[in-house]
Amino acid sequence: MNSDHVGLLTVRVWRGREEGRFETYRVPARANQTVLDVVTEVQRSQEPALAYRFACRVGVCGSCAMTVNDRPRWTCRTHVARVREEGILTIEPLRNMPRIKDLACDLTPFFEKWQKAGGRHVATASRRDPLQKIDPRSKPRLAASAAIECINCAVCYSACDVVSWNAGYLGPAALNRAWTLVNDARHGARHETLDRAFADGGCASCHSQGNCTRHCPVELSPSESIAGLKRSALFGAPKLREPA
Length: 244
Hints:
Layout: E1 5-16, E2 20-30, H1 35-45, E3 65-68, E4 71-74, H2 80-83, E5 88-92, E6 99-101, E7 104-105, H3 108-116, H4 139-147, H5 155-159, H6 161-165, H7 172-182, H8 190-197, H9 211-215, H10 222-235
Parallel strand pairs: 1-5
Antiparallel strand pairs: 1-2, 3-4, 3-5, 6-7
C-alpha cells in the first residue's frame, strides 16, 4: 500500500453511448489526486475497456475534458479533494455532443460550427510580402489578444444551456473565434466572418447567461466576445475599414 493512500473513493462512471448506465467503482483515495488519475486507475485496475481521452496531463491540450459532478472540467487539473461530494465522484462525457463510448464524445458538431462561424483565417499577404505592422496597443488588437488563447477543449460548449436546446446555435467557442478574426487586420474576410457570426444560430441567439465564461479553464470570456460581435453587427464597426 502506498504511503499516500488515505482510504477509498467511490466513483460513478458513465458506460456506453447515449443509451448507457453509470457503473460504480471503488478506488484508493490519495493525496493530491486528480480526476484524471482516478479515471486512469479505474481503467488500469478494474475496467480495461473503459474509453476516455487524454494527452498532455498538464492542462495544455484540453483533450481530457469531462463532466465531473455535473460540471465540465479539465480532469487533469481538477483535484478530487475540491470536487468530491460526500466522498463520491460522478464522471460522464461532455454534454451537448454525441457520445461515442463511455467518457469519449464526438466533437464533430463542435468543430463544424467553428467553421460555420467563419473561423478559418484568410491571409491578406503571402510569405513573400513584408510583415504587416500591427500596433499591439490598438483596441482591435487588444480585443483579439484577450480572446485568442482558446484551445477548443469544448468545455464552454458543454456548459452552454442554449446549445442544449438549440442545436443550430454556433456556441461560445466558435463565436469567440469569430471575434478574434473580426479584430485581426490581417484577416482578409472580416466582413464575411461578422456576417456569419450574426446569421441564424449566431451571436443573436446567445442569452448572456455566462456559463461559458464561468467554466472556461483558461479564464477567457466568450460572453464578452459575443457581446462585442453584437455591438459590431448592430451599430457598425469602424475597425472593419481596411487600413490606409
